[in-house]
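Student: Hello, beginner here. Can you help me understand the protein record under this note? Any guidance would be welcome.
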Amino acid sequence: MNPILVAKAAQTTTSILSNRKVQIAILLIILYLIFRAKIKRWIYLYKQRKFNKDEALNPNQLAQQYRAAANPSGISWLINADGTNERQIENLAYQSKNNFQPIANAYNLKFEESLTDRLRKELSPKEYQDWHNIVF
């Protein structure tokens, strides 16, 4: 490499990095990359505290019961492998009648997935349609 070219590149880099706005931008980018996971974790914990504070409310209890029916073992990574309690989901449908949106919001807040999407995965198309007809 040409020593004059290397010297010019070093001088240009030094002049760019000495700019205060560039230093602040680089610092903010580095801080974001370092603390990104912690920020996501803080947001998740905030949502959990909000959910747990309202735990006694009926929509939160029904959301938890839907999850228990879809995941009887209670182990989150087994949700797609263990069976589904279709009878319990049908009973919950009658309890959810005319009050589904708050339950769906509570489920989404607690488990970070849509309740209707989870039920589509867990139930056959006919069972899902029967559940949908009961709730709506």
